[in-house]
Amino acid sequence: MDKIDELLNRGVANIIPNRDELKRLMATGKKLNVYLGIDPTSTKIHLGHAVVLRKLSELAKLGHNVTFLIGDFTALIGDTSDKDTERPVLTSVEIQENFKTYQKQAEKILDFSKVKVGYNSEWLKKLSFEETVKLCQKFSVGDFISRELIKKRLTEGKRIGLHEVLYPIMQGYDSLTLDTDIQVGGTDQTFNMQAGRTLIKELKNKESFVLAIEFLMGTDGRKMSKTWGNSIWLDDNPNDMFAKVMAIKDELINQYFVLATNTNLKKIKEIEGNKNPMDAKKELAKIIVTELHSAKAAIDAAENFKKTVQNKETPSEIININVSDGATVSEIIIAAKFASSKSEAKRLIEQGGVILNEKRVTDPDAKIEVGILKVGKRRFAKLALE
RNA sequence: GCUGGGUUCGCAUAGCGGCAAUUGCAUCUGGCUGUAGACCAGACGGUCGUAAGGCCUACGGGGGUUCGAGUCCCUCACCCAGCACCA
Questions:
Q1: Distance (Å) from CA A336 to C1' B5?
Q2: Which of residues 181-210 of A touch strand B (CB under 7 A)?
Q3: Which listed residue, A63, A121, A124, A205, has the most CB atoms within 10 A of its CB?
Q4: Per-residue pLDDT tens for A138-162?
Q5: How many structural domains is chain A composed of?
């Protein structure tokens, strides 16, 4: 019973129509049809995406009938708003490939042997225009234009493609076809997911549920998203991952614990209670790396972080650069790809960011010497004569 | 097809005819520290010069007006909106 409670609360932003009813249904122990739809055009998964996968995984563990639905049909249609540029349509082979890379990452969270994988082109492709129109009858234009985002675009005079109106209907049809009981997705999908509820109710007279999952904030406190560059990717290497977690804002520590780890809630309280933010964050980073890589990787990453960041030691593995006698420091900085132009190298030196063998370099034309070159806080190179 | 708006540094934005060009985010450097976080300061086209400064390249493409054009004019391309046409 506790399990169900946690499942319906942790990281859950909203349950439609309501939490209690779903709880009652789940308590009956009935096997429910659950599904999550994903877009096969993006293959990289970050911790934010993982929140939803985590929820799906929990449902699968409880023995529900979980479908992981690949929205290949949506990808086939693509965004056709521009008629001249032939948008390369994803072939089914590419979609397969994409899914493979996706799965490789998602496996860290979700056990694919416990779920069914489906493709929505299977039924959407066959849908006739007549059937489509019938589905459309179940919705009103008012529903769509009252959506906040759509409303905003309308008032701003932005273009809204008619096909955009069809997306929720397609998604709703997926839901209908799968005879869904629970649909899982991010809160941004709430509207689309509700379309499924509408269709199931109208055409099957069955009540279904929408489980809207909370968003995870990115390392800078904004929503984690590809375009912001604030994401922690599931395939980040342990050191990067650890460091990125350390870089999150203090206020996000709790959110990360709850949404991005499987740590139980009591333990989270405990950790937060007796530790200062930095230690809590270290704990968090360790757990995340452990879950996504391994315990050993986490220990190594923690060690590495301590050494290189906190104690400012030179990392054990650094790049080697062969220098010819008489080369200048700025030339080497460029050769090591620490700067992309002479001006930039010069700038780094002027700002005091270049250290050669423990000594700060002040002259860009200083001759190089064999040893350790440090640029900024984290870039090192070992110099050796050719 | 017509009318209007737009195309500027990774993204987003500003830009009376004197501009290597604003601001925000991101990035980088320094300081500080609890960490590479937060905060503060600075940098952020290239190249030459120790420096002051010079030179080159850049505001969708091409052309023009001008001592001088991101800014004005013409033209082409693309994007967006509204209208019309098509029924």
A1: 47
A2: none
A3: A124
A4: 888 777 777 766 676 666 666 666 7
A5: 3
What type of residue sits at position A200? Answer: I
- Identify whether the C-beta of residue A38 lies closer than 8 Å to the C-beta of residue A72: no
Mean pLDDT, all residues of chain A:
80
pLDDT for A89 equals 55
**A256 strand B contact, CB < 7 Å:** no
Q: What is the pLDDT of residue A229?
A: 65
Alpha helical stretches, state H, A247-351: 253-260, 265-274, 277-292, 295-305, 329-335, 342-350
Assess whether A311 (CB) lies less than 7 A from strand B.
no
| Among chain A residues 8-67, those with CB within 7 Å of any atom of strand B | none
Looking across all nucleic acid strands, the nucleotide with the smallest C1' to CA distance from residue A311 is B35
Q: pLDDT category, A81, cuts 50, 70, 90?
A: very low
Q: Which nucleotide in the DNA or RNA is closest to residue A228, CA to C1'?
A: B26
Is the CB of A237 within 7 Å of strand B?
no
In this structure, the answer to whether residues A209 and A287 fall within a common structural domain is no
Residue A268 or A259, more confident: A259
Give pLDDT, residue A241.
84
The CATH number assigned to the domain holding A330 equals 3.10.290.10
CATH classification of the domain holding A10: 3.40.50.620
pLDDT, residue A337, reads: 86
Q: What pLDDT is attached to residue A86?
A: 38
Nucleotide nearest A374, CA–C1', reads B29
Are residues A136 and A48 both part of a single domain? yes
What are residue A16's DSSP bridge partners? Answer: A210
Q: How far is residue A124's CA from residue A136's CA, in Å, rounded to a whole number?
A: 14
Cβ of residue A338 lies below 7 Å from strand B: no
What is the per-residue pLDDT for A79?
46
- Check whether residue A250 has its CB closer than 7 Å to nucleic acid strand B: yes
C-alpha distance across the termini of chain A, in Å: 69
Q: Give yes or no for residue A83 having a pLDDT over 50.
A: no
What tokens does A295 get? 């315990």
Q: How far apart are CA A52 and CA A259, in angstroms?
A: 9
Helix (H, G, I), strand (E, B) or coil at A183: strand
Asked if the Cβ of residue A330 lies within 7 A of any atom of strand B, the reply is: no
